[in-house]
Amino acid sequence: MTNSMSEANDQIVTLKAAQKSTYRVAGVPVILRRAFASKPTDALELMRAAYARNYFRTVSAIDRRRALRALVTWPFVFVSHLWIYARLNGRIVADRYGRSIPAQVADQVRLYLRHGILPRWYYIFSLYEERPRRHARDFLNRFETKLAIFRLINWPGTSPLNDKAKFAAHCLANGIDSVPLILIARDRQLDWLGAEKHQLPPRDLFIKPLNARGGKGAERWDHAGGGVFTSTGGKTASSAELVARLLEESESIPRLVQPRMVNHPAIADLSNGALSTARIMTCLDEKGGAEVVAAVFRMAIGRNTVVDNIHAGGIAAEVGLTDGKLGPASNLGDDVRLGWLSTHPDTGAAIEGRTLPLWREACLLAVSAHKAFSDRTVIGWDIAITADGPMLVEGNSGPDVDLLQRPMRRGLGAGRLGELIAFHLVKRGISPPL
Question: Is the pLDDT of residue 13 over 80?
Fold first, then answer.
């Protein structure tokens, strides 16, 4: 068991390293264009100028080498990505949307050289469609947000967003409605927080690593009666056996145990068993208050009945900020076969046009939560809407922009978020005013 976990961790580290190298390649056209550009004239240009100035300012020597290597390897990386994703998606897009494969290839070359959009994101952002393609400049990219912009405006930050145990304690101390903790297992020690008599309660449980992202390593254990739990994979364990396993593995993979939350009855049919959550992004405004700038609703499909993350194969639909109404849903989009859905593929329940219950309360929860973490400028909140009201699941200090922009089919850079990011870059002295 330990060897397999170690191998899985090594694979994750390798994948993250490859992603960071890819992000550096994506940034090459941006820094080259900014080197010959005039003074920024709008929020997007200001953001990209800040990114270009900070391209080589990295947190490690390894990342600096990645940045330098990208200047040499970008043609090879781009062509390999073009081959992979055009081969995977080209024919389907041509048949479904009428954009020929040569036109798709020409699009991808042009959009990469202009905006650093690599072939994978050409499909994620639906840039084979005319309207998104006309506004391709407006899409924020992971390479500029995660590697630069969010770091510049969110750090230093002392509030505990990235440690799930400390996050839960911080929410409790600040009166924020969040999913409670039962047990934390780390460094071969158990910290019992919400269970009586130091045993797991007779209810369905949700177990996840303390520091993982994207739903990786999450487990769901349903109470089968008599102190026995059953996993979604069909395994059974007593309370003592489950605790013993957590203790044994806690040195390499610290985990927490929470009660499994269930969606509000009005949206129960939008789930295949996994908890569906709203990802609500908030940003501090010009006066220091928190403002909701984008939101999507995530749903699990298929065999994955544990987590709703879009990077774990789930789907997401845009949520209207004022009315809580859902648009059509889709997966991440780098594989276009699924397309866009008006109904849930497992339950048949309507998605498009559906109104989420307690939406105003969910937005208020996100805003009030940001007040408790006001040292961070931009936060992505995962909020479950339950029969007892909205509940905060976790917060993300480097929120994923793909997850939001894919269902929206438009870029966040041209809206309120772009304005606020530019404001904070100027406020912090990172960029001169327009």
Answer: no
